[in-house]
Amino acid sequence: AYAKQIADINLTIAGLTTSTAEPNDLLDKRDQMLTELNKLVKVTVTPADNNMLNVQFGTGQPLVVANKAFQLGTSNSPTDASRVTLGYVTDGGAFTALPDQVFTGGQLGGLHTSTNTPASAMVGISGDDGQRLTVVTASARTFGPNSTTATKLLP
Predict the structure, then answer these.
(1) Of 86, 84, 85, 83, which is closest to residue 63 (Cα–Cα)?
(2) What percent of the chain has pLDDT over 90?
C-alpha cells in the first residue's frame, strides 16, 4: 500500500505544484509514508520531475518511479521447495525473483535473513487497513513443492 500511495501522491503533487506554490500537506504526508516504508525495507529516495520522488530499495531496485509503483511478493523457490524467494509481482500475477542480497535493512530484510531456512520461511506481508503492513510467517511445507502462487507484499 505504501508504494502505491506514494506513487498516487507523487502524481497529485506534480499536478498541484506551481512555480509559486507547493502542496505542503501532501509533501508532509508523503514524507511520513516514506519514513514508515523505510522501517519495513531500507529505501533510498531521489528527486524526479515536477516535485515527484523515486524510491529504490535494497541495492537500487525500483519501488516507485514517479507515479508508477512496483509490487513485491513471495513465491516458492523453483530450485528448493523449502525456500521462499522475494521478487516483483505483476498485476497479472507473474513473479520475477530477486537475489537475496538486494533485501538489506528494515524489518523485511531482517525477517528474510533470519527466517529463510527449511524450517520456516517468510510467506507474505498483508495490509489490514491499506497502510499498516503485517509480516506473516509460516512453515515452508504449507505450500508444497509445486506451489507457484506469488503473494503480494508492499503493493
Answers:
(1) 86
(2) 35
* Residue 124, pLDDT above cutoff 60: no
CA distances from residue 93 to 26, 51, 103 in whole angstroms, order as listed: 31, 31, 21
User: Mutual orientation of helices 24-40 and 2-16 as an angle, nearest 10°?
Assistant: 160
User: C-alpha cell of 66?
Assistant: 514517479
- CA gap 28, 26 in Å, rounded: 5
pLDDT digits (tens, 9 = 90+) for 1-58: 789 999 999 999 999 999 898 999 999 999 999 999 888 888 999 999 999 999 999 8
Cα gap 133→1, rounded to integer Å: 8
The residue type of 97 is A
Given CA atoms 107, 58, 149, 8 in this order, what sign does their dihedral have?
positive
pTM over 0.85: no
Tell me how far apart the alpha carbons of residues 78 and 6 are, in angstroms, rounded to a whole number. 32
Using DSSP's 3-state secondary structure scheme, residue 71 falls into: strand
Q: What CA–CA distance (Å, rounded) separates 43 from 54?
A: 10
Contact by Cβ (8 Å): 125, 111 = no
Q: What is the pLDDT of residue 44?
A: 94
